[in-house]
Amino acid sequence: MSTKPLIVICLFSSLPLLFSQEALKSTEEEYYDFLSLQGITLRPTLGYRTLSDSEWQFATDADGNSLADSEGNIWQNNNLGTKKTIYDSQDEATNCFTRGLSRSVRYKLYGPEWYNSYNTAAPYGQNDGALWQGKGYNTSLTAGARLEAYGFELTVKPSLSFSQNKSFAYIQPNYSGEAYAGKADTYGYYGVAGIDAPQRFGDSPFWTYDWGDTEARWSWHTFTVGFGTQSIWLGPAQLNPIIHSNNAASYPKFDLGLRKTQLTMPYFGWNLGYIEARAWWGKLTESDWFDNDDSNDANLITGLGVYYQLPFFKEFTIGLNRTMLSKWDDKNSYTLFKIYNPRLSSGNSGGKDTSDQRISFTFDYKLPKVGFEVYLEWARNDYSPNINYYIRYPFHTEGWTFGSRKALSLPGGLKGILQLELTFLECSADYDRLIPWYTTFYAHHYITQGYTNGGQWLGAGIGTGGNSQYLGFSVYHKKGSVTLFTQRRNPDLDYTMYIDAKRDSENGTSDAQKNIRAVLAAGLRSNFFLTNDFRLDSGIVLEGEHNPLNVSDDGNSDIRYNVCVSFGLCYRF
């Protein structure tokens, strides 16, 4: 029999695979992560997540059978998107190098996915990349494809978004002078420290093109190196990771390191656990609404994430994240590898900070047998390696996110998950009593744009200096899911406590609580598969913002009500 027809069949059969990469915080990724809580899927990462690293696979039972067909996989009849094989070599690898490569050609298509929202009174939105969900109508469209061949990976997944950006009342920006004329003095942030976080992105509608999850990469065994703009999510938090999230627009970066890798003792074959490590260098850019100086538009971000999962305490992972911002063109303030010095401090003997550093430690413990997970990220701004500082007052410039999740089996074959997450990013007490200057977690006097990219926060979407309490309950059924949630948060109490309280003190008043802002939100979100390939997403959130302008002379806060209505369509090939 001729082999040519067999070759043709291999090239065009496009056989689906039971695993695929998923975008951060997408419906698909959150579903697979929900399954991992029950031990049905295997988490592909320990703490460093991008689209390329998020390759989900189904676990197997004691007999080696895949759990893809288990009753716990309640969406198994819906198309969530899978890789397809164009060609797969049947030849045995002959050396160490070829054994480290996936000797096949595969592809995956993403989307198209169309998202829409409308805010009636104020901006509302988080963890949505380059999209700015201001007052009025907002929309984004994304689609893409991924190709893998012999260790090379190419992903192209850009996004195009639009914001109507209607006017609304906001706090008077704390900027003045010619350098900020027509920009930050009109639309900018209100705190003392310089932060490129506009309250409104100009006074007119605008379009944004973003390369999104686009990237070129090469991998050998678990070693990987890549260049592109894929968003990074660090640590176990589900809503507010402190060091890095996909809340801001993407930025160009180069990275290298080890994907999740099992360690084994030579000769003895003992399991030593799993390790994951990634280093990256990227270029951050300020928004169009900060200052009129084109020479300071870019900053260097250097990052490191290292995670370890214990062998004798399965599903318990500890991690370390560290980032440093430096001026892009200031060669005296940084080197590309300066951050990897564990004793690197944020200052020098002259007292001048030459970089903007943050560090966090993460702890994640998952118990698939009972469907429970608990996690913590503890972070510090203005990092110093001096152990005496930690002994005397470890809470200096701290921030933390704590969360827990519980999977539930519900009547009628339904599945559920209950989720709690608490985040605290307020200034430590020593700034109120001992240190006579203003600071906040995502700001630094040397990097005048703060911890942002394109005008949006790189870390927790709630922003700097505040706190958040989130409680959500999701129900999964065969044709989709429904989520009910409530959230209370205080936006930037560092501004309220330090600036407003001191201003009131100078005016002879002491009731600082009258100026505190608080936001209480409740919402409903749902996904519904109209067909196995076509999904409808919808949601409604009612948000009450107490004292939105930080002024309340009579002690009775005004309340601004905002309704956010959203819907989206997604088709999977």
Task: Give the CA-CA distance, first to last residue.
Answer: 34 Å
Uncertain spans, ≥5 residues at pLDDT below 50?
1-15, 348-352
Give the amount of beta strand, in percent.
35-45%
Query: What is the SS-derived class?
Result: mainly beta
Radius of gyration, whole Å: 24 Å
Helix content: under 10%
Strands, count: 29
The largest β sheet comes out as:
18 strands, antiparallel, barrel
Principal-axis shape: globular
Q: Roughly what is the average pLDDT, rounded to an integer?
A: 89
Number of helices: 7
Structural summary, described in words:
- The protein is mainly beta and 573 residues long.
- It has seven helices and 29 strands.
- It has helices at 4-12, 27-37, 96-99, 184-187, 387-392, 430-433, 493-506, and strands at residues 15-16, 19-21, 41-42, 48-49, 55-58, 84-88, 104-119, 136-149, 152-156, 159-163, 206-210, 215-220, 223-228, 233-234, 253-264, 271-285, 298-309, 316-327, 356-367, 372-381, 398-409, 415-424, 452-453, 456-457, 467-477, 480-490, 518-529, 534-546, 559-571.
- The strands form four sheets. The chain has an 18-stranded antiparallel beta barrel. Strands 2-5-3 form a three-stranded antiparallel beta sheet, covered by helices on one side. Strands 4-14 form a two-stranded antiparallel ribbon.
- Strand 8 (136-149) and strand 9 form a beta hairpin.
- The longest helix is centred in the last third of the chain and has 14 residues, at 493-506.
- The radius of gyration is 24 Å and the shape is globular.
